[in-house]
Specification:
Structural class of chain A: alpha/beta
Low-confidence stretches of chain A: none
CATH topology of chain A: Rossmann fold
CATH class of chain A: Alpha Beta
Shape of chain B: elongated
Mean pLDDT of chain A: 93
Helix content of chain B: 25-40%
Largest sheet of chain A: 6 strands, mixed
CATH architecture of the largest domain in chain B: 3-Layer(aba) Sandwich
Oligomer: heterodimer
CATH architecture of chain A: 3-Layer(aba) Sandwich
Strand content of chain A: 25-35%
Low-confidence stretches of chain B: none
Strand order of the largest sheet of chain A: 6-7-8-3-9-10
Strand order of the largest sheet of chain B: 6-7-8-3-9-10
Number of domains of chain B: 2
CATH superfamily of chain A: P-loop containing nucleotide triphosphate hydrolases
Helix content of chain A: 25-40%
Number of domains of chain A: 1
Largest sheet of chain B: 6 strands, mixed
Structural class of chain B: alpha/beta
Chain lengths: 242, 300
């Protein structure tokens, strides 16, 4: 079965004055795909992602996310996607339950649905004992797993993960990826950035940005073949170092 | 001995950050403290750089006691904290001059030591630190930590959130500094960087799991480890988790690292099991343990 595109980007460009942060990028991401969005610091990943989640207006080009146009319907995009980043995901000074209630409310879920979803989430992650603890007191790995689940509360078609596993311990990092696999398997599209190159191998397809342009885009297997190297780390080094 | 740590413990209210930590770092050694967020790495750095006092135990840095001789230590160590801590509203050059002056020296006097690193940011010397990119901030912070020619350099997660290219360059810089006789204690959550250290300590939940050279640490991995692949990664992980004899199942790039509970494990049995689960293009082959495998085995 041919899957439909959940993200469709054509010649997308963003300029800040004379500086072109994102330079004419084109790609699409299919439903249920795990898409790795890689690049060196400053390559333009964050700027590109901001356009896709409807908080930064592109200079030119076209982009469609979850069936909405980034130029004309950015508010609809925000309602239909999930987002979490390494830097900010949950409120440290709210409890686990309060965070779930807060974000559920933001996404317009009813009280009864929030209550029900909150129970499922707490049981699935085994958080019964800490449900009323402040999020700030939990280990980073737990926070990130909760944040991911919270980003999925409203059943978005696509979820954007900006370095979700930075600094997380190796076992929890793998549990996090099992959650990603599970949700992709159930049809949620995953758009993820990471600096861990072993995680790049877990993606169905990977794009690598260099100086605002997408310089490579394929499955990890084909990229390794194309650059004649053993792993994604070497693909990255070859591309980003020129 | 450049750093001597004996039975250091530290708690914050009901959280034990460090439990009875002891180890030494030799002069001129590049020593890695490897562990995830929350392991206690930063607390140990703060104790060694005299910013925090331990509840129990003693520590010496460059032969100075961290409590009694804290002022001497401050003159002889360089510290690059995990969070960018320079003055955002001073320029690159102003920051460097500021730190040189504080330590009673000048940029010119120790320029030789920072030259390699500083030339890369010198074209931006009139830019405010707050406006620099992540990689440039990191280079400026390292220059400032080196400007007084410290004997011991403490680097707390200098590469967290940094892309693989900049990380590689950063480690090449550290190797060059080591050749100039500076002892370096560096922490990182990236296990692949551990291999670049002379010796490493694996740390989790405030406790040292193991200390050795990277080679020895890997050699002591207790199990036979297999690379397993199949056409559907998610189904493969689910099936392996269901397999009653599994000891550990961890995704590693394009493969899953698998260990079995039995000593007389026959991969053919597992192959049969996976085939029955409907998996295709199954590969099972022997592989070597990495530092990350060892860490996860010890942390279980």
């Amino acid at each position: 079965m041919k899957q439909k595109n959940v993200i469709q980007v054509k010649n997308l460009t963003k300029k800040f004055g004379d500086f072109t942060a994102v330079n004419n990028i084109t790609f699409e991401v299919k439903q249920g795909e795990i898409f790795g969005f890689l690049g060196a610091n400053g390559a333009g990943k964050t700027t590109a992602m901001k356009m896709l989640i409807g908080i930064s207006k592109p200079t030119s080009g076209e982009a469609n996310v979850a069936d909405f146009d980034v130029f004309t319907n950015p508010e609809d995009i925000k309602k239909n996607i999930g987002y979490m980043s390494q830097k900010f995901a949950l409120y440290d000074d709210l409890t686990v339950k309060e965070n779930i209630t807060f974000f559920g409310g933001i996404y317009g879920l009813s009280k009864s649905i929030i209550k029900q979803k909150s129970e499922v989430l707490i049981n699935e992650l085994g958080l019964q004992e800490v449900a009323n603890e402040l999020v700030g007191s939990l280990p980073l790995g737990w926070k990130q797993k909760i944040a991911f689940s919270v980003a999925l509360l409203h059943n978005p078609k696509v979820v954007f993960l900006d370095e979700p596993t930075g600094g997380v311990d190796p076992i929890t990092r793998r549990q996090f990826w099992e959650m990603i696999y599970k949700n992709a398997h159930n049809g949620t599209t995953i758009f993820v950035t990471t600096h861990y190159m072993d995680e790049a191998e877990y993606c169905d397809r990977v794009s690598i940005m260099v100086d605002g342009k997408i310089e490579a885009l394929d499955t990890p297997k084909n990229l390794k073949k194309q650059f004649n190297v053993e792993n994604m780390n070497d693909v990255f080094l070859k591309l980003a170092r020129g | 001995m450049s750093i001597l740590i004996k039975h250091i413990s530290k708690s914050f209210k009901d959280v034990t950050a460090l439990k009875d930590i002891s180890f030494n770092v030799n002069e001129g050694e590049l020593f890695g403290l490897i562990g995830p967020d929350g392991a206690g790495k930063t607390t140990l750095f703060r104790i060694l750089t005299t910013l925090l006092i331990a509840d129990e135990g003693t520590a010496f840095v460059a032969n100075y006691d961290v409590v009694k001789n804290y002022k001497d230590i401050r003159n002889h160590v360089g510290y690059m904290p995990g969070r960018f801590s320079l003055y955002q509203d001073l320029t690159v050059e102003e920051n460097l001059t500021f730190f040189a002056t504080i330590f009673g020296t000048t940029i010119e006097e120790n320029y030789d030591l920072i030259k390699d690193i500083y030339v890369q940011i010198e074209p931006f010397k009139n830019r405010r630190a707050g406006d620099l990119s992540g990689g440039m901030k990191q280079k400026l912070a390292l220059s400032c930590a080196l400007i007084h020619k410290p004997k011991v350099l403490f680097l707390d997660e200098p590469t967290t959130g940094v892309d693989p290219v900049s990380r590689k360059e950063f480690w090449e810089m550290l190797k060059r500094l080591q050749q100039k006789g500076i002892t370096i204690l560096v922490s990182t959550p990236y296990m692949d960087e551990a291999a670049l250290c002379d010796r490493i300590a694996l740390i989790q939940d405030g406790q040292i799991l193991q200390i050795d050279t990277p080679k020895e640490i890997v050699k002591h991995y207790p199990k036979t480890i297999y690379d397993i692949a199949a056409s559907n990664m998610y189904e493969l992980i689910l099936s392996l988790n269901e397999y009653q004899y599994n000891h550990s199942v961890y995704p590693f790039g394009e493969f899953v690292h698998y260990t079995d509970k039995r000593d007389d494990f026959n991969p053919e049995d597992l192959l049969k099991f996976l085939k029955n689960k409907g998996l295709k293009n199954i590969i099972i082959q022997l592989t070597k343990a990495t530092i990350e495998d060892t860490f996860m085995e010890l942390a279980r």
